[in-house]
Amino acid sequence: MSRYLALDIGKRRIGIAxxxxxxxxxxxFDVIIQDNLEETLGTIKSLVxxxxxxxxxxxxxxxxxxxxxxxxxxxxGFADILKRELSVDIEMIDERLTTVQGERLLLExxxxxxxxxxxxxxxxxxxxxxxxxxxxx
Length: 137
Description:
Blueprint: E1 3-9, E2 13-19, E3 26-33, H1 37-50, E4 53-60, H2 70-85, E5 89-94, H3 98-108, H4 113-135
Parallel strand pairs: 1-4, 4-5
Antiparallel strand pairs: 1-2, 2-3
Helix pairs in contact: 3-4
């Protein structure tokens, strides 16, 4: 069975989450530091191959009023690049408040600011993927 990969796209960092083999639960996986587009694409391609990914879910960071700002346009542009480079389905879903929700979870867990910063992108990707899985169960 194939798995899903979620990406929380930022200009500097990309949070990554993977589904379990049954596509029921999402697990935070890693964070890519974007220094070089080719390296970033290579990392994502290797994850797609290694985990038999059939679909990539990308968070669309809409403004609270539903409009697209700079971050949403950046995520769309990145999704367009992935669509050209990979032969897997790519979907975008509204991710408003996932970073805020993730930050709240990490604060409740008592993590230091440094540990929260290192984890927030991965947690946001996990929340994006879990939302998608729950909506499509």
